[in-house]
Amino acid sequence: MTGGPLYYVYVCTVARILSCSAAGLQDGQHFLSTLLERFKDGSKSPSHFTPDMYPELRSRLYQGDIILPVSRNAIMSDYYKWPKAIIPYTIHYNFTQDERSKIRMAMDVIESKTCLRFVDKNSENATQLLKDVGHSEYVHIGRERNKGCNAMIGFHREMGGPHNMNLEAPSCISYQGTVQHELLHVVGLLHEQARADRDNAVIIYWENIDK
């Protein structure tokens, strides 16, 4: 497996994805070094990766980690953006204090680069702020075992309950980039490879691919 085309495509793809988050670069480098170790003896290929190694593989969700409402399969309108760029959230009590800190740090990174604000629904100063946004929707960050890392995509006023996001511990919280990834699904972002304009920036040289 080492040195084969699938090996290089896989590693380069992971490297490209991880490089998109400067804040998660150190985590990404550690992740890649671990990944390379798995490939060294040629006994592990992507097809050998198990759900225990990568919880994202457990679910049959859209692209592995996106929870879509039954009625639609993509974010198409401003209607699905969180009003006033405020995202209320709760964190399940099963998370340790260290895990809670990691989740909040991931939120802080996103807030530092955008106009978005993540507001703890149960905090003392949240009452008036949440009243101003004009809805009762919020994100609940759970820690269910065997549920992997996943999140509902975007804002849905008609939910009438929490927008679920799951971070199976410790796997999904080992790297800050993973937490950021799921939070950005909550914001409403799909994977880059799913963009409508993806093919404008990708050239595939089919003649160079072994059949």
From TrEMBL:
Enzyme class: hydrolase
Gene3D superfamilies with a match to the protein in the record: Collagenase (Catalytic Domain) (3.40.390.10)
Active site as annotated: E182
Pfam families in the cross-refs: Astacin (PF01400)
Cross-referenced InterPro entries: MetalloPept_cat_dom_sf, Peptidase_M12A, Peptidase_Metallo
GO molecular function, one term: zinc ion binding
Name of this chain's protein: Metalloendopeptidase
Cofactor: binding details: Binds 1 zinc ion per subunit.
Domain of life, per lineage: Eukaryota
EC number in record: 3.4.24.-
Keywords carried by this UniProt record: Hydrolase, Metal-binding, Metalloprotease, Protease, Zinc
Binding-site residues, Zn(2+): H181, H185, H191
Residue span(s) of domain Peptidase M12A: 73-211
Cofactor(s) needed by this chain: Zn(2+)
GO annotation terms (biological process): proteolysis
PROSITE patterns: ASTACIN
